[in-house]
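Students often ask why we bother encoding 3D structure as a string. The short answer is that it lets us treat folding as translation between two languages. Here is a chain of 70 residues written in the first language.
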Amino acid sequence: MPDGSSNAIPISVRLPADVLEKLDKVAALMERPRSWVILDAIREYLADEGQEVLDIQAGIEELDRGEGIP
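And here it is in the second language, the structure alphabet:
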């Protein structure tokens, strides 16, 4: 895994066969485990789209507290 974390929590996910096939090809070409590629992809998603969702929610919460600009 990218950070070598020993406190990782195992999860289960169902993937379509074509996605799993591509994932395995990428992992093999990078000489990395499948889980490393998945973790890297999730981190990239959270840094981009996931962060956008969190920022929007934070803005909504600010407005709910009356902290918006009139």
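Translate back mentally: The chain has a mean pLDDT of 90. Keep this in mind for the problem set.
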